[in-house]
Amino acid sequence: MKDIVINIVNFFYGFTGNYGISIILLAVLVRLIILPFNISSMKFTHLTKKLNPQMEEIKRKYKDDKEKQNQATVELWQEHKVNPLSGCLPMLIQMPILILVIRAMQDPSLYQVAEPMFFGLNLTIPDEVYAWNYGMQYLVLPVLSVITTYFSSKIMSAGNPQNMGTMNIVMTLMMGWITLRFPAGLALYWVVGNLLQMSQHVVFNKFMEKEELLPAEGVIKSEKKRNKKR
């Protein structure tokens, strides 16, 4: 499977002549592939933000009865067509792709030149090796990886009813370690992917500000109907 990644990178290299740009294009391609799942996740985040007042009311109303609290929450999500699994889909799909990219970056057959360079970095050498031999300035990609991973995870998990803070920190530290220890090409791929994901989220939020999916009046009316049924 890693051969697919290798072939794609070398295809881009065929008309760019630069492996750094080819890896950036690979990140763009992957983001386009998982864009439908990202949109689904962002809709989930947006809807849960809108439903937060109703969810807090449910927690207050059934604070001593977890079973009824969970049932009411599920009914609220079903009524507004909220799928909790959609919030996890991008990560579940992205991780296998990331593993393939890691394996491809470690494969010597990926590059058709001895020293694929990008802004002074040899993409086949881990950033920690550069930093150890030539100075801390070569840690820029791992540092950007940590920063962009944290903010990207924070943005994507905003509005999630579950506490994602610990998971975001663990993911950030893990990717910081991976991008430090593995070839620099991987860090470049990951940073670009994070920047693209955050850009998609900003564009989506601006769109949703104009196209309100869940007007407040509609939420209040639906809540009243549900209370009458009970």
In words, what does this structure look like?
By secondary structure, this protein is mainly alpha-helical. The chain has one domain (2-224). Helices cover 75% and strands 2% of the residues. It has helices at residues 2-16, 19-33, 35-61, 66-79, 89-105, 127-134, 140-157, 165-181, 184-210, 216-229; strands at residues 117-118, 121-122. A two-stranded antiparallel sheet has the order 1-2. Helix 1 (2-16) crosses helix 2 (19-33), helix 2 packs across helix 9 and helix 3 (35-61) packs across helix 4.
Key features?
mainly alpha, elongated, about 230 residues, about 75% helix
Helices and strands, with pairings:
Blueprint: H1 2-16, H2 19-33, H3 35-61, H4 66-79, H5 89-105, E1 117-118, E2 121-122, H6 127-134, H7 140-157, H8 165-181, H9 184-210, H10 216-229
Antiparallel strand pairs: 1-2
In short:
With 230 residues, the protein is an all-alpha fold. Helices cover 75% and strands 2% of the residues. It has one domain.
- Per DSSP, what share of the residues sits in E-state strands of 2 or more residues? under 5%
Low-confidence runs of at least 5 consecutive residues: 213-223
The string of secondary-structure elements, in order, is HHHHHEEHHHHH
Count of alpha/pi helices: 10
Give the neighbour order of strands across the main sheet. Answer: 1-2
Number of domains: 1
How far is it from the N-terminal to the C-terminal residue, by CA?
53 Å
